[in-house]
Amino acid sequence: MSGRRTTAGRRCHPATVFTAAEAPAAARKHALAIASTLLDDYWHPDTEETLADSLAAHGIAPDLMRRRAGKFLTALPPVDATPARDWRSTARSVLRAQLPPSTNRPVPPRSCR
User: Could you tell me if 31 and 15 are in contact, meaning their C-beta atoms sit under 8 angstroms apart?
Assistant: First the structure.
């Protein structure tokens, strides 16, 4: 596989969908769900709970998680205007900057795979 993204693949990226003014509400909601799950998996890599169970277990309100996911998606660089290598590097930096909502949890790992 060449590792290149197609134009269609770029338009379907959650960050692109979330920030597109013309995106339907259902598509934006789906993008938030993807980002919420990604952040939860990043913050709690050793658990295999559903997102809802994880939020409840860690005392994170679903509304707060959606806000955090939205901020994460809007902080990512434009997919169509950024070379893949630069996008990945910036996306890793943005992800590393996402700290869990509560201060009584350990800091997430430094490396993002």
Answer: yes
Q: Please give the Cα distance from 83 to 105 (Å, whole number).
A: 35
Distance CA 113, CA 30 (A): 23
b/e map 2-26, b = 16+ CB within 10 Å: eeeeeeeebeebbbbbbbeeebeee
In this structure, of 5-9, 27-31, 53-57, the range with the lowest mean pLDDT score is 5-9
Q: Which amino acid is at 47?
A: T
Residue 68: other Cβ atoms inside 10 A: 21
Q: What percent of the chain has pLDDT above 70?
A: 79
The torsion angles phi and psi of 13, rounded to 5 degrees, stand at -65, 135
pTM (predicted TM-score): 0.74
Please list, in sequence order, all residues whose beta carbon lies within 8 angstroms of the beta carbon of residue 90, skipping any fewer than 6 positions away: 76, 77, 82
Measured distance CA(63)–CA(50) in Å, rounded: 16
